[in-house]
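Query structure, 69 tokens:
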């Protein structure tokens, strides 16, 4: 039967493995997933600017047409 010291040593080893796994997952999240999210957000921003510019251009065309009539 293992002593309390041996049980503690086994638990420490188990916890160290879990900490390594958490660190690995955090590293993957930071280096991989956040980069992809940043790319997607940048694409969405570009689309929003395009829609805004098209809207302003259409509004200006409507005002120009209304003033010339």
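Result returned for the query:
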């Amino acid at each position: 039967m293992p002593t309390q010291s041996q049980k503690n040593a086994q638990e420490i080893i188990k916890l160290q493995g879990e900490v390594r796994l958490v660190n690995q997952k955090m590293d993957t999240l930071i280096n991989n997933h956040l980069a992809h999210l940043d790319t997607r957000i940048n694409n969405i921003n570009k689309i929003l600017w395009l829609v805004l510019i098209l809207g302003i251009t259409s509004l200006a065309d409507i005002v120009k047409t209304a003033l010339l009539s």
